[in-house]
Design a protein that fits this description.
By secondary structure, the chain is an alpha+beta fold. Helix content is 46%, strand content 14%. The protein is globular. 39% of the residues are buried.
Length: 721
Amino acid sequence: MFKKFSGFIVFYSLLFLFTFQNTSFSEEGMFPLSEIRKLDLKSMGFNISVDELYNPAGTSLITALVNLSGCTGSFVSQNGLILTNHHCSYSAISGASTLLNNYLDNGFTACTLNEEIEAKGISAKIIESYEDVSDLILQSIDTVKDNYDRKKAIQSKIKELEEINSDDKNDITAEVAEMLAGKSYILFKYKKIKDVRIVYAPPQSIGNFGGEDDNWIWPRHTGDFTFLRAYVAPDGTSKSFSKDNVPYTPKKWLKINSSGVKENDFAFILGYPGRTFRHQPLKFIEYQYNYLLPTVSYINNWIIEQYQDISKDNDSLKLKYASPIKSLANTAKNYQGKLFGLQRLNFIEKKINEENEIKNFINSDSLLSSKYKNLFNQIEDVYKTINSYAMAEILIIRLLRNSYIYNTTDFLFTYPTEMNKPDNERQTMYKKDNLPFTLPNFNSSLQNLNPEFEKRLFVKAITMFKDLDSTALLTPIKNIFNPLKTKTDIENYVVNTLLNKNGLLFTAKDSLLSKTTDEIISSGDELLNLCYQFKLVREYIKKQNDEQDGYLSKLLPQLVEIKTLKDKGSFIPDGNGTLRLTYGHIIGYTPADAVYYSPFTTLSGIIEKSYKGGLYKIPQKLYELNKIKDKDKFFSKDLNDIPVAFLYNMDTTGGNSGSPVLNSFGQLIGLNYDRAFEATINDFTYSKFYSRSIGVDIRYILYITKNLGNAENILKELNVD
């Protein structure tokens, strides 16, 4: 018995080092950089070598990839031209727009370098190298027993490694990624470019065609693309936006294949997928299903309704709220899709059965039982704690954080605490070098608030907090709200007390920075007192989360261990914002009984949808172009139309937005931007039968850029005739 168990441990340890040779993989796959050299690319459908795909000693396709503030982009010319999604640039386009120059609605074209405008809020990171630092981090917690201290020790070691390996002089920033909590950590080094500019953005009637009605839906007809450009100082160093900066010259850029792609063709994606949760236990899924997904969907939709109602007769407010509405709606629909997927797949019951099988496997062996018998009880205890404050945490982080007032008080109460710390221990925004930027933002923080929205938000927050179960944690807040019996009571309290213009936050905000928290609270100002109580709740929850995360950093590796032993399978780490490879084919699917979706949409579909108006309204010129489309270079004889979007069965998630879709030779054929509604469940599980991702066809990108944007300069730069 012991020899058999020891053999399993050796087998597992090899697997855990991500040794994929001669292994039969499951259909899912977000392969990390460490695995690419272990894959048999030729048998998978690639017509390029491993070194062409990834070569740490030289240039490769990965060298052309760019991490764009939460999205992916790729260099497509030697002059730093970047191709990414319109929705990844949406905030920058919105921020550059005015009522006079509304680039969001009308689009933007720069015919020369001098005409390109700053993409505020967007920076570019290019991967330089990576290194496994698991041993360094795990050694630092080897003797730590307390769960909270364990979490803090991990965070401290990560911060230390990032600081040691960052090199500001050479624009290198280091980031440690947790591949598996408490088990595996990789240090990535990136070159950061601070000056990114908008080159061409189609009008949102193209880039956001169909709006939220079509978001996460197939058939899709959105031209979700934007061209940006990276700039550096003349000496090649990274500098913020300056007229003296010059286009960055990347080591590698992607070749455009304007011939496009056909059904059943092989394709692959390189990109920076965000978080996935496929190695999480049943209790995590139940937390998502019972708390996070439904509550956040409800809150986001409620906020959107308020923004739309408040701005319905005000074009300036419509422009201001355009970007937050898009972001909120995107999350809400994504979460609704996840709920649908969990229900459709009966996923919770499947997780119950899966964990019952694991428990039986553990109980079948005395040595396994001695090591793992309490594993699931311990995980359940963690989630009992997390669930006890789940709703309060969601209301503070997802609802109140949309308030200018709440965020201002949060800075106010945090400021004195951070100022008493050594500079290197402060939160980023409170560091000495950043205060010249953050303090002016604090001083002007209430100038742009909308009183009506703030009133509605605080009324909503109070109403929802009153409905929460009473706990010791919430007693101080509950005591404040107890006298408020009706909706009218709540509204009067908010308008006449909390948001009274004679309150200290509105009359003496700047002077409050020089006071201690005790001095502020002793003033008796009810708004400040309430916001402070919310802060105390959030700080308590954060400490609890750190403690539970520290506990999970011991439990989750055990869960992966026992699952791997039981299934004799391989382990692919969850998505975590690090560069990954996924591959598949251009292929349709059946989302429901008696329904089949083909893998391409066309310009004709746009014209058909356009008659609905509203979100489907298109530029008049597109109707004219449609009449002569068969004469255009990018017309597809196979489709007898201009291709717009296509489907593929690759393993993607958030963060893959803007990722290049490449053919077997590594040539760019499209741009990933979405998943089908059924595939929002990808974050929890993947299946080739229903998981489909959506890309905008490179032929449509080029067609719109040339014919609607009149940006022949871009096609010339791309070497496309």
